[in-house]
Design brief:
This protein has about 260 residues and is α/β, with parallel strands linked by helices. The protein contains 8 helices and 7 strands, in the order H-H-E-H-E-H-E-E-H-E-H-E-E-H-H. The protein has a 7-stranded mixed beta sheet, with helices on both faces. It binds S-adenosylmethionine. The site of S-adenosylmethionine (SAM) has 16 residues, from loops.
């Protein structure tokens, strides 16, 4: 049996640690929002990974944020090749539905073929200005790198349409290139400030806005404004809190000094 010297032993012990840290460096932790924003490496925000779909490397994190449940109904607007629809299908199960909406007829036909074994995915053709779905029918409306494709000046109307289609407790989720990063790299994205303005105009409130490290893409999660009722006016007592719950007894009425 050959003997291991102390140098070899050290190498053997540190190899797995090195591999684990390299894996983490190449695929930054999925719990994006729990990472420190402190810049420990000036290159940490640079774009990495797949040239066409860098945000796909963050799918675990994105799926965690979506938190889909069995029975959920999702509309994937601009579903493309159905990559996301296939991921969502696992979470919503056979009793859920993924409407894979596309304006491109060829893509719809391709999805129908490639996703035939997943009946909860329903590829269908849409107009450029509507999902064609009934009111109150979806838990999530999802855009991945397709929001900027909506008709010019039609974004607010589209978000208003989604306000009807998405259930009152539902969400709109938008993965989009943040055009203020990778400066000079074209316009295939949406300024975050623009998106927020459009969302507000259509009565949506962003509950999460986050740049996903190494992708130049952000995730925006919007919920309906009606979930945020007005705060009580200053100086006025909160009508709910000020209501006496029981009649005070005599001891409670008497002040300590009387
Ligand atoms: C860059 S691809 C993204 C595909 C897919 N969502 C993904 O992230 O892998 C943009 C997709 O949006 C579709 N699209 C373009 N205009 C659209 C519109 N008005 N409504 C919905 N989808 C649209 C295109 O046909 C294309 O498949």
């Amino acid at each position: 049996m050959s003997h291991i010297n102390s140098n070899q032993l050290h190498r053997l012990l540190t190899a797995p640690v090195l591999i684990a840290s390299l894996t983490l460096a190449l695929h930054p932790a999925s719990a994006e929002s729990t990472l420190s924003t402190r810049i420990s490496d000036a290159k940490q925000h640079r774009r990495q990974g797949d040239k066409k779909y860098p945000y796909r490397a963050k799918s675990d994190y994105i799926l965690k944020e979506l938190d889909l449940h069995a029975d959920d109904v999702v509309v994937d607007i601009g579903a493309g090749d159905g990559w996301w629809a296939e991921k969502f299908a696992k979470f919503v199960g056979k009793s859920g539905v993924i409407h894979a909406a596309e304006v491109d007829k060829k893509k719809v036909e391709q999805m129908k073929k490639s996703l035939a074994k997943t009946p909860q995915i329903k590829p269908y053709l849409i107009e450029t200005d509507s999902t064609g779905l009934p009111e109150n029918s979806c838990d999530v409306a999802f855009f991945s790198q397709s929001y900027h494709h909506l008709n010019k000046d039609g974004h607010v109307d589209y978000l208003k349409h989604l306000h009807k289609v998405v259930k009152p407790t539902g969400r709109v989720v938008i993965i989009e290139k943040y055009t203020e990063t990778g400066l000079g790299e074209g316009t295939h994205g949406t300024r975050l400030s623009r998106l927020v303005r459009q969302a507000e105009e259509a009565a949506w409130v962003p509950v999460r806005l986050e740049l996903m490290t190494g992708t130049y893409h952000y995730i925006a999660i919007l919920t309906q404004q009606e979930l945020f009722p007005p705060e009580p006016k200053r100086g006025k007592k909160d009508p709910v809190k000020s209501k006496p719950t029981k009649k005070p007894n005599e001891k409670e009425i008497r002040s300590p000094r009387s």
